[in-house]
Design brief:
This protein is α/β, with parallel strands linked by helices. It contains ten helices and eight strands. Helix 3 links the parallel strand 2 and strand 3. The radius of gyration is 17 Å and the shape is globular. It binds 2-phosphoglycolic acid. 2-phosphoglycolic acid binds next to strand 8.
């Protein structure tokens, strides 16, 4: 069985005490031990919690990543967090290009591609988030939007031959936090397209596709038939351990 990826995006929801509760539930749940063996479970936490979480998680097989990083290597960039500092604490991955960051900080695809390259150089897996808005979907430009969001990264990957695992997370903006999952036809069209354009790069076999947006124990089965999906980026439903467990246990590809 191919490994399945379940990456929680804890956004700005967590506190140290809630994280401790999550870890306690995660480590004391014996039913979950067998499932954990085939699943890659990761948490993208806020920067202030990363050091604590990484120290605990590395002992229990949980993978930890950041929700964002700086596009600069180091220097006078107040409030930013360097890829080097993420590497120093041993993180496995970092989200980049999440639609909430694109929206709130007017991030361009060029800036996101710079982050991507820095992460690759540090051997930290980038989880590059892409996705169209509802208006763009209605205008029939979904595939063009996705291509534009990937273009600079694809250019870079044409001459990359390293072994860092790369994730592309398709997260339609209208699905995030709304309970809406795109139709099977829409998902099939998007993932076939992504697969086709990524197939052209030399490291295509190291690129995994994730789906994100309203994934829960109730919706995860709607994604069973999309073969290209290797796992999920999960927001709200990853905060509570029992909810996350439900997703892993309800995922048709895990059984
Ligand atoms: P959601 O968020 O699962 O709460 O919809 C997903 C995300 O923003 O990564």
């Amino acid at each position: 069985m191919k490994q399945r990826y379940y990456i929680g995006n804890w956004k700005m929801y967590q506190s140290l005490s809630l994280i401790k509760k999550f870890l306690l539930a995660y480590t004391s749940d014996q039913d979950f031990d067998a499932v954990k063996a085939d699943a890659y479970i990761g948490i993208a936490a806020s920067h202030e919690h990363l050091y604590f979480l990484q120290n605990k998680a590395s002992k229990i097989g949980l993978h930890v990543g950041a929700q964002n990083c700086s596009s600069f290597l180091q220097g006078a960039y107040t409030g930013q967090v360097s890829v080097e500092s993420l590497q120093e604490i041993g993180l496995s991955f970092s989200l980049i290009g999440h639609s909430e960051v694109r929206r709130d900080f007017a991030e361009t695809d060029m800036i996101i591609a710079s982050k991507f390259k820095l992460l690759i150089a540090a051997n930290i897996s980038p989880i590059l988030c892409i996705g169209e808005t509802f208006i763009q979907k209605n205008d029939g430009i979904t595939l063009q939007v996705l291509y534009d969001q990937l273009e600079h990264v694809l250019e870079f990957l044409q001459s990359y031959s390293g072994s860092t695992k790369i994730f592309i997370a398709y997260e339609p903006v209208y699905s995030i936090g709304t309970g809406i999952i795109p139709s099977q036809e829409d998902l099939q069209q998007v993932f076939s397209f992504l697969h086709k354009i990524v197939e052209q790069v030399p490291v295509a076999k190291n690129v995994m596709f994730l789906y994100g947006g309203s994934v829960s124990g109730k919706t995860v089965n709607l994604l069973d038939n999309i073969n290209e999906i290797s796992g999920f980026l999960i927001g709200k439903s990853s905060i509570d351990f029992q909810e996350l467990k439900k997703i892993v246990q309800s995922d048709g590809r895990m059984v």
